[in-house]
Design a protein that fits this description.
Chain lengths: 328, 336
């Protein structure tokens, strides 16, 4: 089948259509997902195609949305529960962290919870402090749950298909600023393996491990650095839990320098975990300390000027790589 | 506000008060109580680890509801969940083994008292978080409707849980989607150590059903025959596509919130405790049976003797069972 250019949101939407077409146990619930197609039109057309029982608008009740998914998943269905903004994790965290994530373990393995939670994270739309966060570290800290963060349309489709087919709770964090970005997407169903990092650009002088939307910024930075004769390897972990430490470490052993960049607040972010694992497993290979770039330790600001300063970008990544290399 | 009468068996038609129903309910209640009394003693003696939230006093609620449910009907339970498991048909051996943290337990020693589950009989699990099982049961009810079966799902929770958001969100969702759910509120008068009068304005939690357009009923939670009767109505409605029901069962917890130390007069008066014990659920059903000449004392004693023997064998099984191997600590964090 053909590959063509699709936007990130269309690629996700196509995955949902194909998943629901191929598996009658897949259903979708969430706020405004049926009649309106989701506030970002992620779910356009699904209700018309699959009907009221499989695509349901819910009350604004995030605990009940996720709890419904937990109960239905424990009964063998494959629910997709939409959490409109990632920030709303705060109102349903019990069902995510104490129920979905722990059920298999604390029940002695008697049950699986094949629940998918879709949500939109990330800043860049002047949506301010309660509609812009990147909270993947909250989730990655909880054993029993998986967290994927597609950085491009190909991964948006492939990670979504892998997530819904996975027998564990998986949170798909779509990035709001990437929804309209375009890329090559095959027509057929395919999976991006969860827990397998993608070497997005090969390089030899330094490794940039970039999460979510920061992969694009890392590509831009790598282009600029290439013009200056610096060869940067860009790695997209694709999932922050499970984390493909082996691929990250293997890269660092070749380049000897590494920068981790994410949109989330730097303090206590997933970059801290990645940095710790690299120094544990590749300390002798490092020619410079592991660097991190993340957002400052503040809520996401509203002002476009402040928000632009808040979110890491290619320029900051270039600065970080130059520091790694001891370049002015 | 709607005026609720407390339903009890005195007004029930004779067809509800049969020898079979009485023997079934009595057996479930005795099994719940003896399990708890034994577990409490073992825990207090120090031979068994963990927290125990004992169900003693409330047996008529679990037994009355469970006597109506089938194995493919699902339940979610609470931190005070042993009675729900036993009444649904869970086996003593793996229950005691779980309390001991052994590999033969219902959770392979990973869950303990607050996570006992048996999916083969529709016991979707106890829960350590107050109110959290209610949306999960609504999800199980959704799954039944989605698949076009006539199974139902019941969630047990307490008066305290009726103040948490999960209850309200789940009740509303069950109602608007007309899901085959039973919300069974075991009102034992106390949210841990805080009296109902201190934690809500209402006398009857059933009043909350109206807020969600849901039929609601108040039943004497010491009267297993009455609980069974109101459950039959709710289950019939749910199986027929008539949606959820809120059942409030007025009951009482004989022991403390946690453990077997008994009643602390710090928050409950001895008179109150004795008044409830005078209406003990097992004593009540035996009295009804004797009055009607449906069951003999010897038959009830035989149920108790059989239960004691089962418990003795189960405790021996649990104590002889192996501890988990720390090498397996990561088993079942994820499904493959």
């Amino acid at each position: 089948m053909a590959t063509r250019q699709l936007t990130y949101v269309k690629a996700f939407n196509e995955a949902m259509h194909q998943l629901m077409e191929s598996d009658p146990d897949v259903f979708l619930v969430g706020e405004d997902v049926a009649g309106y197609g989701g506030v970002f039109h992620m779910f356009d057309g699904l209700r018309d195609t699959f009907g009221d029982m499989r695509v349901k608008d819910t009350p604004i009740s995030e605990q009940a949305i996720i709890g419904l998914g937990v109960g239905a998943a424990a009964r063998g269905l494959r629910p997709v529960c939409d959490l409109m903004f990632m920030d709303f994790l705060g109102v349903c965290m019990d069902q995510v962290a104490n129920q979905a994530a722990k059920m298999k373990y604390m029940y002695g393995g008697t049950v699986s919870v094949p629940l998918t939670i879709t949500t939109a994270g990330g800043a860049g739309l002047s949506a301010a402090a309660q509609h812009s966060q990147s909270l993947e570290a909250w989730l990655a800290h909880i054993p029993g749950i998986k967290v994927v963060m597609p950085s491009n349309p190909y991964d948006a489709k492939g990670l979504t298909i892998a997530a819904v087919r996975d027998n564990n709770p998986v949170v798909i964090v779509l990035n709001k600023s990437l929804l309209g970005s375009k890329g090559d997407v095959p027509e057929e169903m395919y999976e991006c393996e969860i827990g397998k990092a993608h070497i997005a650009r090969a390089g030899t002088d330094a490794t940039v491990i970039a999460i979510g939307r920061m992969v694009n910024e890392a590509h831009k930075a790598a282009e600029q650095l290439a013009e200056a004769g610096v060869s940067v390897e860009v790695i997209d972990p694709r999932s922050v839990s499970p984390l493909d430490t082996a691929t990250l470490v293997e890269s660092v052993k070749r380049t000897n320098r590494v920068l981790v960049v994410h949109e989330a607040v730097q303090f206590g972010g997933i970059g801290a975990e990645i940095a710790a694992q690299i120094q544990e497993e590749a300390f002798d290979y490092l020619d410079a300390p592991v660097l991190r770039i993340g957002a400052p330790f503040s809520p996401v600001p509203y002002s476009p000027v402040l928000e632009k300063a808040y979110v890491p970008d290619a320029a900051k990544i270039v600065g970080g790589v130059n520091k790694l290399l001891g370049r002015g | 506000m709607p005026d609720f009468e407390v339903r009890n068996s005195s007004t029930l038609d004779d067809s509800y008060i049969t020898r079979d129903a009485i023997l079934d309910l009595h057996r479930r209640m005795v099994r719940c109580r003896f399990f708890e009394e034994t577990a409490g003693k073992l825990n207090e003696s120090g031979s068994m680890p963990g927290f125990l939230h004992l169900y003693v006093g409330q047996e008529a609620v679990a037994s009355g509801v469970m006597s109506v449910l089938r194995d493919d009907d699902q339940i979610t339970s609470t931190h005070r969940g042993h009675g729900h498991a036993v009444a649904k048909g869970a086996q003593f051996g793996p229950m005691f083994a779980e309390l001991y943290g052994r590999t033969t337990g219902y959770c392979n020693g990973r869950g303990g008292s607050m996570h006992i589950n048996d999916l083969s009989i529709g016991m979707l699990g106890a829960n350590g978080i107050v109110g959290a099982g209610i949306p999960i049961a609504v999800g199980a009810a959704f799954a039944a409707k989605y698949r076009g079966t006539d199974a139902v799902a019941a969630s047990f929770f307490g008066d305290g849980a009726s103040n948490i958001g999960a209850f309200h969100e789940a009740a509303n969702m069950a109602a608007i989607w007309e899901l085959p759910a039973l919300l069974v509120c075991e009102n034992n008068g106390y949210a841990e150590f805080t009296a109902q009068s201190q934690h809500m304005k209402l006398e009857n939690i059933a009043e909350r059903g109206a807020a969600y357009g849901m039929p609601a009923v108040v039943v004497d939670g010491m009267d297993a025959l009455a609980v069974r009767a109101v459950t039959m109505e709710a289950v019939d409605r749910a199986r027929a596509g008539g949606g959820p029901t809120l059942i409030e069962a007025k009951t009482y917890r004989y022991f403390d919130h946690q453990g077997i130390k008994g009643m602390r007069i710090l928050y409950r008066s001895p008179d109150e405790v004795e008044a409830w014990k005078a209406r003990d659920a097992i004593g009540l059903i035996e009295a009804i049976a004797f009055e009607r000449g449906l069951v003999t004392r010897e038959e009830f004693e035989a149920i108790k003797a059989e239960t004691r023997a089962d418990i003795e064998a189960a405790v021996a099984f649990a104590e002889a069972s192996p501890h988990p191997d720390p090498a397996d600590i990561l088993d079942n964090v994820y499904s493959v």
